[in-house]
Amino acid sequence: MAQNNQAAAAGAGNQVVGKVVILYGTVKAVSPDGAVRLLMPNSPIYANDHIVTESDGSVSIVFDGAQGNQLDLGRMMNVAIDHDVYGTVMSGDTTDTVAEVEQIQQALATGDQPIELEAPAAGGPADAGGTHPVFIVTPTGEEVLPTGGVTTTGVTFGSTGTIDSVITATTASPPSVPTTNTVVVSGPSDVNEGGDITYTATTSHPVQGDITVTLSNGSTIVIPNGGTSGSVTVPVHPDNPYNDAGTITTTVTTATGGTESIVVDNTPVVTHVNDIPTLTVAHITAVDHNITENEVNAAVFNIHLDNPPQGAASVDVKIVDSHTGVTTVQNVAIDAHGDAQVVYNSAHPDAYFDASSVTATVTAVYGGNYESPVYGASDTVQVADFDTPTYAHITALNSSINENEVNAAIFKVHMDDVPQGAASVDINIYDSHTGVT
User: What percent of the chain has pLDDT above 70?
Assistant: First the structure.
């Protein structure tokens, strides 16, 4: 008998003996080799499994077979599904019995022949010991209810007692299948200087574990476990007054982390940076707004640009002298600080009333890599008259004459400076002979 039991146990290692029909909470099945399965409705139950219910778990299991026995387990239970639990009378075991019953029922119905019951397996002649005689039943047609004098009930399963401990086993994780995930980075095609570029890293499917993507500009993007994208914002150089439009090219340097094989799409992200025109104004200011006509190189103007140049720069300065009516243009170099100075000689000392002015205007800006230079500023120096005397001279043509000479007293008058327009002098003549003035 022990041999038969061992054979049955060996053959039942993978035998499905039932299934889960109702389940609440956490219920596990522990196989003889220690593997743990988390059960759910319709999960198969194998022979010799240990069914373990957690503190929140309960389960109902229906076993295979004609009777369809059911096992109900509450929380914190540990029950071994051995042959004593799942064993039922299979349909094959009842075939002969059913046939014999049908034979008896047929004989009772016809009533035309005796019923002969098969002797027990250990039987022999009717009068041998340990045997029973054969009874011949004659049908009378009377209808009776068969009773045996005792009440029989089917097998029921109650709750098992509280177990001392619960088998704790580590759930075997399914082996991870290496997969390939492709990461690609995208960004805007253009951006204004002073703005930001947002780079987005995208994977072909949700990542398994956090992925860190490092860009060629040194920034990093983290794609969280289960996600498909992440982003980072990088500032572009600040707005400035210089011509520096261009492109920024960014690629993926590395992509690490997670449990998958990460393939990097190295297609570069090329973003054009647009210049936003910023003004650079050229200013001009006279050092002294009031000078006199006798001062040499006194008309001095300082020039300043709002922003220092990048590289060589110069300005054109137009100078208008109202005294001479002459206009000149000077090209003046701008230093590294954005400054320059222009000097104009407005000196013209004379004896006339001719106050004047000198006006300087910036008419052009060259170089400096400026985006939008602004010129046209001007300033004026007032040139005042300097008090220069003009002397009137008088000289006798002859220092002596005779009294009989007519109109012989002649005097010549000369002014140091020729007049500008009509001019005259008053001459006081005194004749000592007559005493008349």
Answer: 76
